[in-house]
Every structure is written in C-alpha cells, then in structure tokens.
Specification:
Elements: E1 7-14, E2 17-24, H1 28-48, H2 54-77, H3 89-106
Antiparallel strand pairs: 1-2
Helix pairs in contact: 1-2
Length: 107
C-alpha cells in the first residue's frame, strides 16, 4: 500500500448524528468542509422552517446540494469561448512579411 492509498477512520456529525467514515488520507479536509456546509444548510432550514422536522431539513439540504452540484457540472460542461488572438499591427506586418518570404522560397 502506498502513502496515497492509506485510509483514516473519522467520525463526522451531520444534523447531530455521528457517522463513522473510512476515507483516503488526503480527503479529510474537504470532507470536513462539506460536512460544515451541509450542517450550515440544515441550520438555515431549521431557522427558516422551525415547524418542520429533521427529515424535512435534511431533505431540503440534500436538494440544495444536488442543485448546486448540477449547476456546477453544467457550467463545466459548457465549452469555453475561444478568444481570437489579437496582434498589434507591427507584429502583423512582420508576420505577413515572413509569410511572403517563405512563400517565395517555396515557389
């Protein structure tokens, strides 16, 4: 087993419940950050909808995370527009001159 293959056992708390996880060694910071974001969303829904129960808050948090993920994936799937390179006129003239010199050598 290489260093990158080693795993850690951690316990995360989501909505007040512990969840033991076995994770890759380098994944702990991102998992902790995601757990914090999920708990923050749950807390927001608890404050916004105090008469709902834990299941509702978890479901709403899951839905918002799924929507965020979908939007991020859609953004990544869109092709990036390719900007046309712009040359200053002096550089363009030089390239044209070089191009004509090369063309005269070929002919």
């Amino acid at each position: 087993m290489t260093m990158s293959d080693s795993t850690n056992n951690i316990t995360v708390i989501i909505a007040g419940r512990p969840f033991p996880l076995r994770i890759k060694e380098g994944d702990e910071p991102i998992i902790r950050r995601i757990v914090k974001e999920v708990n923050d969303k749950i807390a927001l829904f608890q404050n916004t909808y105090p008469r709902k129960d834990r299941q509702d808050w978890l479901s709403m948090a899951l839905l918002t995370c799924a929507v965020d993920l979908h939007k991020a994936q859609a953004t990544l799937a869109q092709p990036m527009p390719i900007a046309e390179p712009t040359l200053d006129p002096q550089m363009s003239d030089r390239l044209s001159h070089i191009d004509s010199m090369l063309a005269s050598l070929v002919n």
